[in-house]
Amino acid sequence: MGDERPPESPDGAVVKFPVLLVMLGAPGAGKGTQAREIANWLCVPHISTGEMLRDAVERGTVTGKRVRAIMESGALVPDDLVCTIVEQRLSQPDCERGFILDGFPRSVHQALFLDGLLKSTHRGSVRVVNIRVDRDSVLKRLTGRRMCPKCGAIYNIYFNPPRRDSVCDLDGSSLVQRGDDTEEAVGTRLREYERQTKPLIERYRHMGALRAVDGNADPKTVREAIVRVLKAS
Ligand code: AP5
Ligand code: MG
Ligand code: ZN
Description:
The chain is α/β, with parallel strands linked by helices and about 230 residues long. About 45% of the residues lie in helices and about 15% in strands.
């Protein structure tokens, strides 16, 4: 698997495997939108802790019951719980060629945990893309977001509407709004981001792992910028 020829672009540059990529960015920065597309393109798993937790809530598992109210409020769920989920997921065979982490790590504790995990499994160190967006557009992105409950496709009623109103282009499911996209929860999520996640930017910059990408551009332009980062490192 590991020596498969990586995707090549018209300029001939290639992406080196394994791809150990972390998507950093505020709520609504476009982490999920970008991670989904790039993971598909590279054939590596898109690992979104938010999606995994929402799935647990949906299925009513023990974890789901524990985190439901926390997530609805916009607060972060406990580090130990998220770290366990990520450790299990990264040990799956489909992660051998790499992975795209979306929404993890988002605290210093989680970043240290990830470093230790990758070291103990001899996987090398991560590359980190920080998607930067203006605060004003984040609010519109979050309140306008609609999700497909079946396939996870992400839409936006202002910026990226589905072809038919409230219906997924890919499978015809009725789109839903996320429970934490209320004004109140968004406020909490942005505060949590500032307090717990933003310090990671400096940390990864210091380690030489960070590359910033302008997330205010249209999704295709943002994707091209991320791909350039992947090819350059
Ligand atoms: P999570 O699901 O990770 O949410 P988040 O970090 O708040 O980020 P979002 O998913 O809201 O935004 P995104 O950057 O993915 O943007 P998207 O691509 O959807 O976490 C949710 C909760 O789970 C947390 O609050 C916490 O409780 C818990 N949790 C998860 N991980 C955790 C962890 N590690 N530790 C502790 N707790 C954790 O785009 C947003 C919208 O903008 C969409 O409508 C999209 O169509 C649109 N859009 C995207 N790109 C563009 C563009 N370039 N131009 C215009 N519109 C765009
Ligand atoms: Mg997301
Ligand atoms: Zn769908």
